[in-house]
């Protein structure tokens, strides 16, 4: 990535302004690096620079800040399962994409990686893998899209619909149903889950790992994945990811126990 410079850098005053902004950027980066990631029950996203009042298009990246090399592109994900089930949510938006300097990040690939990563974490705790359910994934994807479109972040919609309500409106074969949701950003510096560092997700594979790390670093979400406490023994699940044009990521992972 190249330097970003203000539109007019010809005057001494402008050079002074850039120096001040550069110093402010270094301070902000220090704050981000030492800050801890606050995790809510619905997995609110890590802080980005813009949330701190700094517009990334208005400052110059100082020469002594190492932005690091680009990560390698995503590997080929293991296919999660059926993507065109007989029953789908009418509000399912389908695939969404965001372009980074490394690859085109598409929601379907992120979903495949999340499903595989969740099953890997379950295997680490001697749990059977979840079977991919295309209908459950479609309901999850519709919820992610709805949160983005109506600008809310919750298990309950502004209309009062809860996870089980959303599923039974589409089909009715789950006797128990659970949901994890998360929000983050593509191609922006965000807090890395479980550490005091920052990370920039530029690939589908890295984004998927980051989403699962968010859930695993939050007690109620980890319990849902690992069936701890009063959580039932899930037998299937589906992941629904929606990517907005500005790189905002909404992810919903739903769990199901069939009748």
UniProtKB/TrEMBL annotation:
Region entry Disordered, spans: 59-102
Biased composition (Pro residues): 69-80
Record field: transmembrane: 20-45
UniProt cross-references to Gene3D superfamilies, sorted A to Z: CAP
InterPro entries: CAP_dom, CAP_sf
Keywords carried by this UniProt record: Membrane, Transmembrane, Transmembrane helix
Domain SCP: 117-251
Record flagged with keyword Transferase: no
Record carries keyword Transmembrane: yes
Protein name, entry field: Uncharacterized conserved protein YkwD, contains CAP (CSP/antigen 5/PR1) domain
Native source species: Natronorubrum thiooxidans
């Amino acid at each position: 990535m190249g330097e970003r410079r203000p539109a007019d850098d010809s005057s001494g005053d402008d050079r002074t302004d850039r120096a001040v902004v550069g110093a402010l950027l270094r301070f902000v980066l220090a704050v981000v690096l030492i800050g801890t990631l606050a995790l809510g029950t619905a997995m609110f996203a890590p802080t980005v620079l813009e949330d701190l009042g700094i517009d990334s298009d208005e400052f110059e990246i100082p020469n002594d800040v190492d932005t690091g090399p680009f990560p390698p592109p995503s590997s080929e994900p293991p296919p999660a399962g059926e993507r065109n089930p007989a029953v789908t949510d009418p509000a399912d938006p389908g695939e969404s994409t965001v372009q980074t300097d490394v690859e085109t990040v598409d929601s379907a690939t992120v979903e495949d990686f999340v499903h595989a990563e969740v099953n890997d974490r379950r295997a680490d705790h001697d749990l059977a893998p979840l079977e991919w359910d295309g209908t459950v994934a479609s309901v999850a994807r519709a919820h992610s899209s709805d949160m983005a479109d109506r600008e809310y972040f919750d298990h309950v919609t502004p209309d009062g619909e809860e996870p089980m309500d959303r599923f039974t409106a589409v089909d009715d074969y789950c006797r128990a149903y659970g949901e994890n949701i998360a929000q983050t950003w593509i191609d922006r510096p965000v807090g890395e889950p479980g550490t005091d560092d920052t990370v920039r997700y530029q690939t589908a594979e890295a984004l998927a790992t980051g989403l699962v790390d968010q859930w695993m670093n939050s007690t109620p979400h980890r319990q849902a994945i690992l069936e701890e406490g009063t959580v039932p023994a899930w037998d299937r699940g589906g992941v629904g990811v929606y990517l907005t044009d500005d790189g905002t990521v909404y992810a919903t992972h739903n769990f199901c126990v069939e009748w």
